[in-house]
Each structure stands twice: as C-alpha cells, then as structure tokens.
Amino acid sequence: MCPAGGYGVPVVKPLDLPFDPIERAAQIWEDRFGPSAAMAAVTSVMRAQQILLATLDGVLRPRSLTFARYEALVLLGFSRRGSLPLRVIGERLMVHPTSVTNTIDRLERQGLVRRRPNPSDGRGKLAEITPKGREVMAAATADLMAAEFGMAGYDGGDLGELFSLLRGLRVAAGDFASQPATGSATPASSGRRRR
Fold first, then answer.
1. What is the pTM of this model?
2. Do 41 and 86 fall into the same domain?
3. Would the CA dihedral through 158, 45, 66, 119 be positive or negative?
4. CA angle, corner 114, sides to 122 and 146, nearest 5?
5. d(CA 10, CA 18)
6. 76-80, 85-89, 118-122: least confident range
7. In angstroms, rounded to a whole number, what is the distance separating the alpha carbons of residues 111 and 129?
8. Which of 4, 43, 51, 72 would suit a FRET pair with 12, their CA atoms being 20 to 30 Å apart?
C-alpha cells in the first residue's frame, strides 16, 4: 500500500507478503480449533484500524494533528457554543477521561483549544475551540475529504454497507440504544466506483 487514495500520503509500511497472513491464520485456526470466520473478521477489522489510523495520522501530520486530536476539534466545532465539558467530550468520543485530558492538553499547547471555567459546574472545566482551532479544523477536514478518509477504494454503497455491519457490533456493545439508522446518519452513496 502506498498512497491513501492517490493523495500521496504513505500508509503503513508495506508488508509485501506473498500470501494473506489473516487468511493463512484462519486456515490453521480451522484445522486446530474449528470455525474461523469470527477470528478472521476480527483480525481483519483490527488490521484495517491500524492501516486507517496510520493513513489518517499521515494526512493530518502536516497540520500537527493526530486523528484523535482532530476528532476532539470537530466535536467542539460541532457544539452550539464551541465548548463542552471534558466529561462530555470523553463520552462522545468514547474514550477514557485520561485520554481526553491528554488530547485537550496537547490542543491547548497548540493554541487550538482553551480551558475555561464551567459556569454550570463550579469545579469543572470546559474545553473551547479557538479561532485558530477552527481554521486548523477546516483545513484538516479539507485534507481528509481529499484523501477520502483513506477509503477511496470503496464506493458509497460499500461504505454504507460497512457502516451498517459495524453498527450492529456497536449496538451490542451498548454504545447507544438500538434504533433504525436514519438516512442522514448512514453514509450516502457518492456514486463512486471501486478503483
């Protein structure tokens, strides 16, 4: 794997193996333990996560961001007032409070976020996106959109199907109450064909 969707950002270092190691592991698993479909699917998802994270971090590196910091900026940018309590940021991003603190610390050092007292909670703090943070978020978003979030090889239908398949796993984990996906929440078909 070289560039991400032709965007020119290196993905993870190519392994260039003469075989699919996950498929090989699935065959061995089948011989030793039994059905391997779940193991192969999970291992594939984990490997895809590594590849995508490396790709997205590569796209964002020129902006001195990681994907985790970008997500926090977008979340703050989407909020009505441009600020949220750190606890809410953790809930929405589904990460541990320590990770939120670390992310906000780094964004604050970059001048992209500032902390301020939470008027509705005397002890708590709000993280607030700064004007510079909004500028960096907009530029980073344009970069990620141009790179198609590392998913340029898939058309809109494939992406929608992938979203739907993984949604069931997220519901089962208790991320949110099960509801039918709305048209606006499901990725729309872009009409793009596989490359």
1. 0.81
2. no
3. positive
4. 135
5. 21
6. 118-122
7. 9
8. 72
Do residue 108 and residue 134 come from a single domain? yes
Look-up of token digits 């192969």: 40
CATH number at residue 113: 1.10.10.10
- Dihedral (C-alpha) 142, 143, 148, 153: value to the nearest 10 degrees? 150
DSSP letter string, 3-17: BSTTS--B-SPP---
Cα separation, 188 vs 161, whole angstroms: 10
Domain that holds residue 38: 19-63
One domain for residues 103 and 57: no
Q: Please give the C-alpha separations between residue 188 and each of 155, 184, 185, in angstroms, as whole numbers.
A: 10, 8, 9
Same structural domain for residues 89 and 25? no
Percent helix, percent strand, percent coil in the chain, to nearest 5: 55, 10, 35
Q: pLDDT-derived band of residue 3, with 50, 70 and 90 as boundaries?
A: very low
Is 87 within the bounds of a domain?
yes
